[in-house]
Specification:
With 597 residues, the protein is an alpha+beta fold. It has 2 domains: 300 residues, Aldehyde Ferredoxin Oxidoreductase,  A, domain 1; 197 residues, Aldehyde Ferredoxin Oxidoreductase Protein, subunit A, domain 2. Helices cover 40% and strands 13% of the residues. A hairpin with a 5-residue loop joins strand 1 and strand 2. The longest helix is centred in the last third of the chain and has 21 residues. The protein is globular. The two termini are 38 Å apart.
């Protein structure tokens, strides 16, 4: 029969809880991101306000969670883009969900009548009052809840996902934070959680997962650990701390809100200096021996002691993009943003936008409630961030994000908002790589870097396995397909052909695209980038010019559409939908685009 998949559904309005067998949907959409898109299609009507009780919030896991995967993929309609929203969160939250017996995750619907937190320990599921937690910052909130859960339970192993002040105030790019330095940060999932009056979810599982062929999984894991480890050991030492400086030299990292291709300040992002002065250890996800995360502790006057983690996501959007002097300052800034509970990558784009507008005289010190928002001014940045998190003064406008805020502020400011579908383009500089520019532009949910809109990446987010493994797996197993099919046979008992694997890849991707189209996304119109990238030349450290050619961009865009089973206009073809068993989406697409090719 294979593995059965159980989804825990919690109605926050009524307090009802139900466990649903979703094995058939998991077999088609795998889990995590793919299944999350299908849930949104089935459960959230077109035109729903993302901050209304009609939206859902799905914490998705998948077949490999707890074995070679620790990603939790969080799905909801996004308040930032008004399209499909999703965000990945590492750590052990998803593992505890799987060990609690909910190997398809947990789904929250409705809205609690007052602030609550959700308690899950195996079959014991409760909705508990959280009035005493509401208003607390991260990580103080998580520490208080841990202390509460320890009383009388003698169990210190609960995993907590929670929101900070930004989520409570429905800031559209608010994050969900887990175990202090893991975050489901992208696309405003924290705002959705706050709109449901949920401060936190605490989960503990003590039931071992039931794999179909555990011996096969064990053999695959041994092979992975033993073969090719030399190529991955460097990532265990450096994590993400080398990716930012290396990209500055390649002109593929953002500088001064994308106005420059190089500045001497880039040299201050020094991974060796960070390692010697602040690094604590290398932190790894479940059964991963790479350990790419870099937790740090820093104590330098006059700033207060801080602890956090440097990631490309939370670092690249700041640093040279707002002209702060490297990791010494970045460590404090990242921790402060996490304390407030905002997506560091997105809000850094909002701040960089405001800095350029201030520099150009479009906004004034009076407009910013007295803040002198000059480039590199850490104190001013933190003042503005607090206003955003609490929706105070100018922060109430900026809390709307780059899709909605420009129209509320000044029409002249719109051209300097570096955004794609409402998501800030911060870390990555698309003029440095045409293929990277296409990767940013074609993602239907908005700018998520690292090829996050490709079918293969979406499938990894559905398996809930780290996508950074993709480049190493072929060296050990011959191909990603060979590895994936063997893993799914061991975990679920599925025996997949190469064609079956290709269909899984494409189905999750097409489901996400169909959902975004239903909610207003038009690929040929929206898969674009700001004019700055086509009109303004930047130069590398060595004087090499970089600019995007619009005709080349459009030609490669069309070629990429066709390679993904889409039409030249970026819409799933009828043939593709029928082959994947997704005929249910055809009426919605034809209502917008007419008869499909």
């Amino acid at each position: 029969m294979g593995t059965r998949f159980r989804l825990l559904e919690i109605d926050l309005t009524t307090g009802e809880k139900e466990v649903v067998d979703v094995t058939e949907d998991i077999r088609r959409y795998v889990g995590g991101r793919g299944f999350g898109a299908k849930l949104l299609w089935d459960r959230v009507p077109r035109g729903t306000d993302p901050l209304s009780p009609e939206n859902i919030l799905y914490f998705g896991v998948g077949p490999l969670t707890g074995f070679l995967g620790a990603v939790t993929n969080v799905s909801a309609l996004s308040p930032l883009t008004l399209l499909r929203g999703q965000s990945n969160m590492n750590g052990l939250f998803g593992v505890e969900l799987a060990y609690a017996g909910y190997n398809a995750g947990v789904l929250l619907k409705g809205k609690a009548p007052h602030p609550v937190y959700v308690y899950i320990k195996n079959d014991d599921v409760e909705i508990r009052d959280a009035a005493h937690l509401w208003g607390r910052f991260n990580p103080d909130n998580q520490e208080a809840l841990r202390a509460e859960l320890r009383k009388g339970l003698d169990d210190q192993n609960f995993r907590i996902a929670a929101i900070g002040p930004a989520g409570e105030h429905l800031v559209r790019n608010a994050s969900i934070d887990h175990d202090f330095y893991h975050h489901a940060a992208r696309l405003g999932m924290g705002a959705v959680m706050g709109s449901k009056n949920v401060k936190a979810i605490a989960v503990r599982g003590t039931q071992p997962p039931a794999y179909a062929k555990p011996d096969l999984l064990y053999d695959l894991l041994l092979r992975w650990v033993k073969d090719g480890w030399e190529e991955r050991i460097g990532r265990r030492r450096w994590g993400h701390t080398t990716s930012m400086p290396s990209r500055y030299y390649k002109t593929t990292e953002g500088i001064k809100n994308k106005q420059l291709g190089w500045d001497p300040i880039c040299d201050l992002s020094n991974p060796l200096k960070l390692e010697q002065g602040a690094k604590l250890w290398s932190n790894a996800c479940n059964l991963c021996h790479v350990g790419c995360k870099v937790p740090y502790m820093r104590r330098l006057p006059p700033l207060t002691p801080t602890i956090g983690e440097i990631r490309h996501d939370n670092g690249g959007g700041w640093n040279a993009n707002v002209m702060i002097p490297g990791y010494d300052v970045q460590t404090y800034l990242s921790t402060y943003v996490d304390t407030l509970g905002i997506d560091s990558e997105d809000v850094s784009g909002v701040v960089a936008w405001m800095m350029e507008c201030y520099d150009r005289g479009i906004v004034t010190k009076d407009d910013l409630d007295g803040i002198e928002l000059t480039w590199g001014n850490l104190e001013a940045i933190c003042q503005l961030l607090k206003k955003i998190a609490f929706r105070e003064g100018i922060g109430d406008i900026l809390a709307e994000g780059l899709k909605l805020a420009p129209a509320l502020l000044d029409e002249r400011a719109k051209q300097y908002a570096m955004t794609h579908k409402g998501v800030a383009i911060t870390s990555y500089e698309p003029r440095g790589s045409l293929s990277e520019a296409i990767g940013l532009a074609l993602n239907p949910v908005g700018e998520l870097h690292g090829g996050r809109g490709t079918p293969e990446r979406i499938l990894f987010d559905s398996l809930t396995t780290c996508s950074f493994l993709r480049r190493d797996l072929p060296k050990v197993f011959g191909s990603v397909s060979a590895w994936g099919r063997a893993m799914l046979e061991g975990a679920c008992g599925w025996e997949l052909t190469e064609d079956d694997w290709d269909d899984l890849l494409l189905r999750a991707s097409i489901m996400e695209r169909c959902l975004c189209i239903r909610d207003g996304y038009v690929p040929a119109r929206d898969d674009q980038l700001p004019d700055r990238f086509f009109d303004e030349v930047i130069h590398s450290k060595y004087g090499v010019p970089k600019i995007l050619d619009r005709e080349e961009f459009l030609a490669l865009r069309e070629k990429t559409y066709l390679s993904f089973g889409l039409t030249a206009a970026g819409v799933p073809s009828r043939e593709t939908l029928e082959r994947l068993g997704m005929e249910f989406a055809i009426p919605e697409l034809e209502e917008q685009f007419g008869p499909l090719e």
